[in-house]
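hey so i finally got around to running the thing on that chain from the lab meeting. sorry it took forever, my laptop kept dying and i had to restart like 3 times. anyway pasting the input first so we r on the same page abt which one it is
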Amino acid sequence: MSMKDYIKDLTTYVTSTGFFDKIKVTAGKKDIVIEAMEREKEIILKGKFLSPLAELQGDFGLSNLNLLQTISSDNEFSMAESTVEIIYETRDNEKIPTELSYENRSKSYMRYRFMPKALVPVQPDYKEPKWDIVIKPTKANIQQFGWAANGLSTYEQYFIPVVKDNELRFFIGEDGGAAQRGGVVFATNITTPFSSGHKWKISLVQSLLKHAETTDCEMAFSTKGAIQITLNTGIAQWKYIIPAKIK
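ok and heres what got predicted. didnt touch it at all, straight out
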């Protein structure tokens, strides 16, 4: 894997969501950890690349993410003649990554500056809960959720997951309530009971589940009030934790 593969994975599955303004990068000899929090603190990202890169070492931040998106979307980005290089500076006897230098086959170039680690927002100390249900959502069930959400989101922003008759159902609007409402069967053969006093924002989950069509996706539910969507791309593992709202 190359630096370009890592940049493409990051921009495809993280920055393209539009959820984050700033990202923390901790690159060492064993791994590269990526952390971020959505602007309204509605999503926590805990990700890591599966292998380290010798040319990327140090702690820094990423901001101005639209520019990084622009670099990776160049139609010459994947060409062998196009190059990516990490530029370092020495400060107080410490070698610090400060910039990404990109030049394509046509000799067009961009310089993307990193954020100093002192300016990177502190990330939450997240302790993963015990998951009550873990599933791999199917394309068909994701499409059904999207269909119901598109129709009902004008009236209701949240959904409630409940296991009923061995089916994991997503109720949009209060089941049996006197209002516009509906629901979908999201998974079957679920033997673990699940019912909590929580609800989750439809738009956040729906946006992340779109990536399930292009990569391996796992979804976990906790009655403590969290849903986790994990994308395993073969290059990185991206864990999106979505805290619940109280019903």
